[in-house]
Amino acid sequence: MSLWQHPRWMAGLCAAAVLVCAAAPAVFLTAVDAAVLGRSETVKDAYTAPTPSGEDYYVLRQLTARQEKQSNLTPVPGTEEDPSRPALKMYIGAQNSLENMTNGYDYQETVNTTLQNLADGGVIAPQWAAWATDWGDATQAYVGYDGAYYPLDVPYYATDSLGFVTLKRFALEQESLYTAFSMTMDSRTGVVTQLWISAPRQGDEPPPTPGEEALLAFADRAGLENLGDWAKPENSPYPNALYSRNGQALITALVSPYEYSGWTNAAGTVTSQRWFLSLSLQPFSEEDLPQLVP
């Protein structure tokens, strides 16, 4: 019997062949799964999660690179495995004087929002944010020794070669220029790594100092809460500090009185009693912890 003479038989056989071919991968995978599931193996530390480290966090890698550059002044080589740390021929630090910084009018809102977010998040007290962002009015200005005119109702900024940007507000005290606040951020992530704010001294009672909860909130805003082991270091000279051994990182906060001394052409030497707040995140190896003992 010729199959060509019986088209219905021919169609049925073709359909059956197609179904067999289509089912073959599923049958094969099912057999493989059954073989795998039917075989048990002992896994070492099956319920132990990987321990995070500083190398897992971009901002800590950047801070470490900057610290190495500042201390050793030697290149930090990049690797193909870690393109986020490209090799640098040299490190160029950020300028910190008014004359060498750039008018940051466009970043005034960035400063306001960042400081307000720190206050809203419980990192700093609201009055510190208010002091830092007291821009005054457009009539405030400083005339440099070269005759250049610098308005003081805007921030000024400078960036180092690793991408950390420092933003400052300058002000006048009896015609003498001083730094009212300084904030360093990672320009790529917006993470604040250092904050310094000056405030007028009003009595002997200091303004609020960030405590443990505030420092944990600071770590959280830096994306470092998952390090999981932030705790006050022993024998620390800092009354408010948290250290992470996993991340090899230290957060410190300090509020202290200081006396600003300046100079003005009109009145000679000018002094001013003030408070300052210092808040910082920095790499700190466990080997360096004994050096914290005063």
Give an account of the 3D structure.
The protein has 294 residues and is α+β, with helices and mostly antiparallel strands. It has one domain (54-292). Helices cover 26% and strands 27% of the residues. The protein contains 5 helices and 10 strands. Strands 1-4-5-6-7-10-9-8 form an 8-stranded antiparallel sheet. A two-stranded antiparallel sheet has the order 2-3.
Task: Give the topology.
Blueprint lengths: L6 H31 L20 H15 L29 E2 L4 H13 L5 H7 L8 E3 L5 E3 L4 E4 L4 E10 L2 E11 L5 E9 L11 H10 L18 E5 L4 E16 L3 E16 L11
Antiparallel strand pairs: 1-4, 2-3, 4-5, 5-6, 6-7, 7-10, 8-9, 9-10
Helix pairs in contact: 3-4
What features would you highlight for this structure?
alpha+beta; two-stranded antiparallel ribbon; 10 strands
Compose a concise summary of this entry.
The chain is of the alpha+beta class.
Structural class: alpha+beta
Q: What is the average of the pLDDT values?
A: 81
Approximate shape: globular
- Give the distance, in angstroms, between the N- and C-terminal Cα atoms: 104 Å
The portion of residues forming beta strands comes to: 25-35%
Q: H/E order of the elements? A: HHEHHEEEEEEHEEE
Please work out how many helical segments DSSP would assign. Answer: 5
**What is the spatial order of strands in the main beta sheet?**
1-4-5-6-7-10-9-8
* Uncertain regions spanning at least 5 consecutive residues: 74-81
Counting structural domains, the number is 1
Main beta-sheet strand count, sense and barrel state: 8 strands, antiparallel
User: How many strands appear in the DSSP assignment?
Assistant: 10
Rg computed from alpha carbons, rounded to a whole number of angstroms: 31 Å
